[in-house]
Amino acid sequence: MLFEQLLFFVAGLGAIAGAVGVVTLRNPFFSVLALVAHLISLSVLFLLLTAAFLAAAQVVVYAGAVMVLYVFVVAYVGGSDEEMRHESTGWLGILGPLFALLLLIELTIAVVGSGLSVLDTRGADVGAAFGAPGQIGELLLTKFLLPFEIASFLLLVAAVGAVMLARKRRGLEEPADTISVADLVRSDAGTQKEAVRG
Amino acid sequence: MSVAAWGWLVLLLPLAGTLAIALGYRFLPGRTAGAVGCAAIGLSFVSALGMLTALLDKPEESRTVVDSAYTYASTGGFSVDMAILVDPLSTLMCLVVSGVSFLIHIYSYAYMDGDRGFRRFFAYLNFFVFSMLLLVLASNFVLLIVGWAFVGAASYLLISFWYRRETATAAGIKAFVINVIGDVGLVIGAFLLFDGTGALDYATLFERSHEVFATNDAQLVAACLLLLVGAFAKSAQLPLHTWLPDAMEGPTPVSALIHAATMVTAGVYLIARMHPLFEQAPAAADVGAILGTATLFVAATIALVVTDLKRVIAYSTMSQIGYMILGVSAFAYSAGMFHLMTHAFFKALLFMGAGSVISAMSSEQSLDRMGGFRKAMPFTYVMFTIGALALAAFPLTSGFFSKDEILAYTLNRGGGYVILAIVGYVAALLTAFYAFRMVFRVFHGEPCHEARELASGHQVHGDPVNPATGEPEDTEVGFPGPEHHVAEQSQAMQIAMVPLAILALVAGVLQIPGVTDAVETFLEPTFADSQFAHTHPSDSSEYLGLLLGGAISLAGIGAAAFLYLRRPGMTKWMSERYSGVHDFLANRWYFDELFALTIVRPFAAAGRFGRTVIESAFIQGVLVDGTVGVVRAGSSFARGIQTGELRAYAGLLLAGVTALLLYFLIAAS
Amino acid sequence: MDISWFVVLSAFIFCIGAAGVLTRRSPLVILLCIELMLNAGNLALIAFSRMAGNGEGQIFALIVMVVAACEVVIGLGIIVAMYRRRLPIDVDSMSELRG
After folding, report:
1. pTM of the prediction?
2. Does a structural domain hold residue B57?
């Protein structure tokens, strides 16, 4: 018990620290790293909730694949430090955190208030197989077959879209001050001269 | 055939004529449209004769026939039928209307030849006759009002017949506006009567009015006064009379038909028809009598000085209708209707003769330019003089008997009516005078240029001009045609005028006091319920009246002869010497100016006020532009939210979620 | 160790992520903050699944992870395309939807 609570606090702190780091660190690269830390903490929390498969998936898929993708893009794009102090963020700089705080208060009231008394439990009694890959697999293939298939289809679409978006063009792209879909999906058939002319 | 069948034929034949001409005018070559129109009215007249004989076949008590074509509306307790009422009064009116209309149609067949609007003219004319017959044959207020309105519309169409003339269209509008005032009075009067009695058809209405209303009951008097407003607008009595002289802008047959013989008598008919109500509300009848007398005097005085030939005759019409209104308001119904009949004859005749003279003058209408047509136009001279004699109530003409009958009855009423009768006699003197003023100025004296040309066989055709303003015109559609038809050369016109002349001379024989009383007996079934049905003046007082009337008429004619034949320059001298009086009369007692000042200008000012303040400033400015401004402000505010900044949108999203969550929190607690 | 603690924690992380979306200007970091929010949602889902005792919440969380991955892929693709076009990597300068 005590061990669990301790673990919970440690992981929770890690998660919060990571989150705060994502939001406040200037360099995007450091933000990515903070998010990775956050994700790891989160997977520990998942373990605490006896969701073993999800914890593993979190580490492998999220922290492992998605964050690596992020790191690559940050490296390509260049994570120059944002000059936050110089431009004014207007009202949003104050209103943003304010709204978030409000939301937090509301959610906390919702959770902790009397209406959700059912949450003051440790949860239902579950067997040892709860959260194990077997159970997840069984659910995926019986009750949630359709979402499973659609999710895979979604992945396919996303992959195709990513390839199309990030395709290299031939020739030099001129700086344009407007961005339009036509720009992005222009076919790259044609001569270099045409591409230069646009 | 039954009375009702004849009645429907009388009514529907002119309608058929109108429709045939209006719908088929392309297929009617030349003057066929005129022939169709004449035939329709001729057949209608024949049907009216049939109706008369069928009615006379019936015993006296049942000479009131109501025949319903179908029920238009039937709601709780009362129903409105499309029904005609055939009784002696409406039969008399139908005969007069269809007979005189028939003759005028024949006259127009010749007179309007050459006018580009020939077919339109006959369509309108037939439509008018249909409306007038509808008015006369109606058995309830609904049809009466329909006929009343149609007659006003037909009058407008015919006055503005030469529609490219601005004076004509202005006159048409003036006539229509004043007629509408009358229509409003009539309709509201009908409302009041309906409100009191719950019935709209005459029979039920008259029955119930005795039960519901006391004598001189306020609502009844108000209703009768409003009916009088309607009657006076239609019959051109004071104060709603100003449209009639201007209505002479229409072609002469129109003046003859509408503004002499038929439409203007609608008011007289209305009062006669509503006699049970007026007898129950003698206050309203007294008002009618007083105004009728005022009109007959005022009109007679104006007719002494106006110089336009047709307008003299118009004022004389106004005056004579004043006599008729006096007659029926004094409850001398048969006298009033008799005078209506004889007046139709001689007034139509006078207008026809005037039309002939005006044609000879190639549309010039001013008496100042005319003279000496006696040798050049003998036929017109005889016809016109016969009409003038009847108008002046020369002994033994029809006008003599009818006018003096009215005055005798009025004297007999006693009380204040004696004064009215005296005014009537004075005006009779003036009538005789101005009637022969016309005759002497047009036909006697130095022949004018046109007369001399005509006497030597050549008719003068001047350039077409507007007779009132002198503006030049052309002779295409919308203006008078190029031809001018004189009676001497036109058989149709002669055929139309002769019967009227004969009737103007001998129709008096129908109601010679003490000898015959055809009209009175004939009309008795209609007026049997009148309290005054049997109050005749005595024979001796009637003979005295005739004597007085004859003397007055001869005196008037003699005075006119003296002034115009013996001392031709004297009238000019008199008009200069008494220029104040002369101007007052020549400006028609300043009624038009009075109306312009009291009614037209305030209304125009109110209209301007409405346009600038209420319409432009308030409605446009405040309401419309204000609303637009508010919407614009709101939408520009809404547009301001669309900054295009991603983070602002995200912020709004979050704010929305927060608010929603807050709502659910509060709702759940 | 009540479930409510996990849910409160997830709310906390969610709000931090929301504040980050509103305050940061680089689309990269905004995407990261969106990831934060998604993860917070995942945590709550799994907590509820534990509470209810069936695995449905976990399946939901798995699908959320899939969707998050797809979204990241596309988002990063757009950022790469922007970089290629020499556009500034800055959310505030992309205001084409301005009314």
Report:
1. 0.69
2. no
- B189 within some domain: yes
Domains identified in chain C, total number:
1
Interface contact flag, B669 A103, Cβ < 8 Å: no
| Mean of the per-residue pLDDT values of chain B | 87
C91: contact with B, CB 8 A cutoff: yes
Q: φ and ψ at B470, to 5 degrees?
A: 80, 5
Q: How far is C94 from chain A (nearest CA, A)?
A: 8
pLDDT, residue A198, reads 47
Residues B250 and B310 in one domain: yes
Report d(CA B609, CA A185) in Å as an integer.
66
Cα Rg of chain B (Å, integer): 30
Which residues between 41 and 70 in chain A have a beta carbon less than 8 angstroms from any beta carbon of chain C? 42, 45-46, 48-51, 53-54, 57-58, 61-62, 65-66, 69-70
Distance, CA of C17 to chain centre = 7
- Give the domain CATH number at C49: 1.10.287.3510
Within this chain, do residues B363 and B264 fall inside the same structural domain, yes or no?
yes
**Residues B165-180: pLDDT tens digits?**
888 999 999 999 999 9
Domain enclosing residue C14, as ranges: 3-87
**C67 in a structural domain:** yes
- CA angle C85-C87-C92, nearest 5°? 150
pLDDT value for A86: 43
At B370-388, the pLDDT tens digits run 888 888 888 999 999 999 9
Q: Read off the amino acid at residue B545.
A: G
| Cα distance between residue B669 and residue A115, in whole Å | 8
Amino acid in the structure at residue B33: A
Protein fold of A6-80: Four Helix Bundle (Hemerythrin (Met), subunit A) (1.20.120)
Q: Indicate whether B122 belongs to any domain.
A: no
Measured CA to CA in angstroms, residue B506 lies from A184, B342, B400, B509 at distances of 109, 10, 11, 6
Instruction: For residue B290, give both structure tokens.
Output: 């007083």
**Cα dihedral C64, C67, C73, C74 in deg (nearest 10):** -140
Question: Would you list the domain boundaries of chain A?
Answer: 6-80, 132-166, 167-198
Is the Cα torsion angle B239, B245, B250, B251 positive or negative in sign?
A: positive
pLDDT in tens, B647-659: 888 888 888 988 9
**C-alpha dist (Å) from residue A148 to A138, C47, C54, C67:** 12, 21, 18, 11
Q: How many domains does chain B fold into?
A: 2
Least confident of A177-186, B260-269, B302-311: A177-186
Cβ–Cβ contact B26 with C under 8 A: no
Separation between Cα atoms, residue B379 and residue B363, nearest integer Å: 19
